Amino acid sequence: MTRIASRVSQLNGEGALAVYSRAKELERQGRSIIHLELGEPDFHPAAPVVDALRSAVAEGRDRYCSTRGLPALREAIADYLKRTRGVHATAEQVLAAPGCKMALSLAMMALIEPGDEVLFPDPSFPIYPSFTRGLGATAVAYGLEEKNGFQPDVDEIARKITPRTSMLIFNSPNNPTGTVFNNAVLEELSTLAIKHDLWVIADEIYARILFSGEYKSIWSLPRMAERTVIIDGFSKSFAMTGWRLGYAVAPVEVIDAMDLLVLNTFTCAAEFTQVAAIEALRDSTNAVEAMVTEYRKRRDQFVAGLNQVPGFRCQPPGGAFYAWANIEDTGLSAEELQRLLLEEAGVAAIAGAAFGLHGKKYLRFSLASARKLLEEALERVRRVSIHWRAAVSR
Predict the structure, then answer these.
(1) Which of 119, 172, 307, 360 has its CB surrounded by the most CB atoms within 10 Å?
(2) CA distances (Å), 68 to each of 78, 111, 270, in order?
(3) Residue 221: other Cβ atoms inside 10 A
(4) Has this prediction a pTM greater than 0.90?
């Protein structure tokens, strides 16, 4: 009898993709759908990046290359991190992979043993607990609650650390809340990690999409470079989602372990995309700054509009490009509202439970759409709110 390995049953999918599939089905039926479900920028890479890709392909840069990534790209990433967030790492501490998920998966495979316990934020990217379980470890959630501005409660995390805890994962700015972990929290997390000898995976994919202040990486705190793995890539900040290029920054012994996993899996990331990524990191046209400026305008517009919808409550995110709206006062479940908005209003959003149990009273809206589409989405939400306005006014 054939069978599927039991580890596969421990994995789960992504709610955003399920909603996207239904939204596309409705579009095929002739319905007008505003897509606010996927975290995919509506921008495209800057012209010099596209030109660099064309040149790389024309020059025959489509061969096998270093399993760790092109040396020139790894040097460029190290320089970029120093320039943009004060992270001092060397090229030997960088590994390129085909997408951030792959970089994340490699790091987790290299560091997590069966039976370990891994701390992860709730709500957050659903792959953290999913892949933890797939590796035979136990995923232990810590809450990001509205009453705390969605900052983690470090005392809660401390209470959940046991002798089997080996890793702490977090994502700042956070998907889906948009919360940027403050410096005090980062320092407290570093203290816990050092005290309990934990690995830290810092998912910094949204680090450049920040609406105020400067980004602080936990890597830069004392004694944290030796126990931190940074996950980042080109999908969000450089609008290169389909290019599938991410990277990890970690102590050399971790990179060595990940490199062996690369050799046993995908061999290398595509050479021509790596060449173009070097140009993206230069950002000669200031495309990142222009994109963040536009996201800030969308945030201000959309969050203000959501807060005028009866029963909705939304804190302005400090980074990333999501609006995380509390819908408890509507009297409807997030799943009911997700269905109602999609089927009747033609607005695709994600019920918050897709990001963890703490998200069950929320909807996530992506701001990766033009302002005119966001305004139209708000108008559609206002129109369909007739279904719950009476409950709000009671």
Answers:
(1) 172
(2) 14, 18, 11
(3) 18
(4) yes
